[in-house]
Structure formats: C-alpha cells, structure tokens
C-alpha cells in the first residue's frame, strides 16, 4: 500500500526534515506514528497524501512510484486516501452533515444514496444532534470528530490521521479508536500520528517511531 525507500524531505532550502526513511505498510495493516513534537510526523503524512515531494528516495503508493504519476492521476490517487488534518480544515459555510458528506458530494453521489449512512456515522462520533449546525459553533473536540467522520465516510483505502484524539476526552478517544479499528477490519490501511502513548499501548498495534526526522527501531518494518 505504502512503501518508502531511503526517503528524505526538506522545506525549501532548510536542512532535511525527514532523513533516509524506509518502511512499508501492508494492505490492511494498522500502525501508529509517534515521536516528539517536531520529529516530522505531519511531514511524513504529507508525503503520503501527496502534499509534498521527497527530496531523495522513492515513495510508492498502491504499488506505483509516485514520481512517475501523471498530474491527471493525482486526484484519483488522493481520493483513495482519507486524511484527518491536525487543523481539521472544515468548510465554514457548510453544515456538519454537508462537511461530513463532502467526499461523496465531490463524487456527485445522490444524497438519497448516502443520507442514512452519513447520519449514522455522525451519530457514532457523537454529532447526531448537531447535523445542521455550522462548524463555527462546534467545540474543538466536535470539530475533530467531524473531521474524522469526513475522512472515513467514503471508506478510503488508506486512512491517515494527524493527532486525531488531541482534543477529546479519554472516553471519546477510546470510541474513536474503535472507529479506526472497525474501519481497519473492513480493509482500510490505517496510519495514526499521535503523542498519545496510552492510546498506542491500549491498541496493541505496531508503531513507527520518529526521532529528529529519522525512523527508529525494528518495529518500523512489519
Ligand atoms: N511548512 C513548513 N515549512 C517549513 N518548515 C516546516 C513546515 N512544516 C513543518 N516544518 C518543520 O519541520 C519539522 C517537522 O515538523 P512536523 O510538523 O512534521 O513535526 P510533528 O512531529 O508533526 O510535530 P507536532 O507533533 O508538533 O505536530 C519542524 O522542525 C517544523 O518546524
């Protein structure tokens, strides 16, 4: 699903943020990505969701070297990847329901085909009674849960989540973890960047550990 071979990346002319990273994520696997603030977790996710290019090495997605993808292929590849951004990136003028349904709206699916599923998903993340609200009226934790609902609504092949439980209480964190586990059980490859070592321990899943832009440890390659 995802394969990095000797990958480095830098922002502009700055020194390398990620250095010589190699790992692979098999289809259907579930990993955490841990490391101190600034270790490079978000940067590594950016390489996978094609928001940034490697400065060295090779990144493969779905068995294809991404440097060989044509520009017109990029939207199709991106569509297979659900992303929970650290800063949510919700659309302020759309309701909670329409934000959650956004990937389906972009695909021009008919609302009648997804209305119930989206409502059920929003209920699952505890937003069943906020479906008609605007994002500006939500708490930080509610925004985070909406961002998660939007990322998983179209059952992506890969789910990337950047600190997805940073703003919620332990009970909701557990509930969201169960949502990720359930999605993974249905076949989605999951990679969650987090500081939450308790969640990592509880989940009993392998972790890729970043330190100062380098990947540590034998756990890194499943
Ligand atoms: N857009 C950018 N331009 C320049 N430098 C950046 C940019 N984004 C991140 N960096 C730098 O890259 C390094 C890694 O940042 P990154 O956000 O990937 O770390 P992180 O492990 O996700 O941190 P956190 O847990 O605080 O989110 C940091 O030194 C950061 O300042």
From TrEMBL:
SMART domains: AAA (SM00382). Residues 2-220 form the ABC transporter domain. GO terms for molecular function: ATP binding; ATP hydrolysis activity; transmembrane transporter activity. Gene3D superfamilies: P-loop containing nucleotide triphosphate hydrolases (3.40.50.300). It is found in: Cell inner membrane; Cell membrane. InterPro entries: AAA+_ATPase (IPR003593), ABC_transporter-like_ATP-bd (IPR003439), ABC_transporter-like_CS (IPR017871), ABC_transpr_LolD-like (IPR015854), Cell_div_FtsE (IPR005286), MacB-like_ATP-bd (IPR017911), P-loop_NTPase (IPR027417). Pfam families: ABC_tran (PF00005). SUPFAM superfamilies: P-loop containing nucleoside triphosphate hydrolases (SSF52540). GO terms for cellular component: plasma membrane. PROSITE patterns: ABC_TRANSPORTER_1 (PS00211), ABC_TRANSPORTER_2 (PS50893). It is a peripheral membrane protein. Keywords: ATP-binding, Cell cycle, Cell division, Cell membrane, Membrane, Nucleotide-binding, Transport. It comes from the Bacteria. Its main location: membrane. One of its GO terms (biological process) is cell division. Belongs to the ABC transporter superfamily. Part of the ABC transporter FtsEX involved in cellular division. Important for assembly or stability of the septal ring. PANTHER family: CELL DIVISION ATP-BINDING PROTEIN FTSE (PTHR24220:SF470), IMPORT ATP-BINDING PROTEIN (PTHR24220). Homodimer. Forms a membrane-associated complex with FtsX. This is Cell division ATP-binding protein FtsE. The lineage of its organism: Bacteria, Pseudomonadati, Pseudomonadota, Alphaproteobacteria, Caulobacterales.
